[in-house]
Amino acid sequence: MAGNPERRASLVDAGVEVLAHEGARGLTFRAVDAAAGVPVGTASNYFTGRDDLLRQIDARLHVRLAPDPEVLGGLLTGSRDRSLVTAFMHDLMTRAVRDRTGYLALLEMRLEATRRPELRASFTTSVRGDLQQGMDFHREAGLPGGDETVVVLYLAMLGLILEHLTLPDVLDGALPGVSVPEGLVERIVATVVPEASEPPQAP
Q1: CA 108 to CA 24: how far, in whole Å?
Q2: Which residues of the chain have pLDDT under 50?
Q3: How far apart are CA 50 and CA 12, in angstroms?
Q4: Radius of gyration of the chain (CA)
Q5: What is the DSSP letter of 203?
Q6: At what angle do helices 182-192 and 82-98 cross, to 10 degrees?
Q7: Is the pTM higher than 0.70?
Q8: Which helix (H) or strand (E) is 44 found in, with range?
Q9: Are 54 and 117 in contact (CB under 8 A)?
Q10: CA–CA dist 41, 117 (Å, integer)
Q11: What is the pLDDT of residues 146-161, one digit of tens each?
C-alpha cells in the first residue's frame, strides 16, 4: 500500500466529503479520487477496500470533531457548575455547525453500520468509547450530576444536532422566544443538569 501520509489524509477527508454529500452508496474509490482531485486509481493504492476506507473515515472524524484543547483548557478555568456544562455544550454545537460535513458523514456512518455487521461492531465500539470518555471527563472534572446526567445530555444533544443540521425548520418556533440552536442548548442543560454536584447515594 502507498505510504504518503499527507496524501492518505487528503483522501480520507475527500471520503468524508463524498460520504456526507452522496451517502454510503456513493462512496467509491473513483468518487474519492475525483473529490481529492487526484488521478483515477489513487485511492485504491491507499486502502485495501471500502471497509478500510470507512474505518479510516471513522478515525478521521474523531480528530476533526474533537474539542480544541486550548478551548477546553480555557473553559476548565471556570467554576464546576451548570454554567460550565452549558459552555461545553455550546462548544459542541459550535463544532457541529462549523464542520457540518463531518457530522453529516458521521450520520451516514451510523446508517451504513445498520447494513454492515463488521462496521456496526467497530463503529459501536468507537461511539461507545466516546460516551464513556464523556462520562469519565464529567466525573473527573467534578461537574454536577453523574453518569445518568451525561447519558441523558448526550441523547438530548445528539437529537438537537441531528435536527439542526438536517431539518432546522422543524425547531423554528417550537418554543416561542427560544433561539435555535443556542437557546435550546441552554434549555437542555437547565432541564438535565442539576445546579450543583449531588453527593453519591448510599448503597
Answers
A1: 7
A2: 198-203
A3: 12
A4: 19
A5: -
A6: 140
A7: yes
A8: none
A9: no
A10: 27
A11: 999 999 999 999 999 9
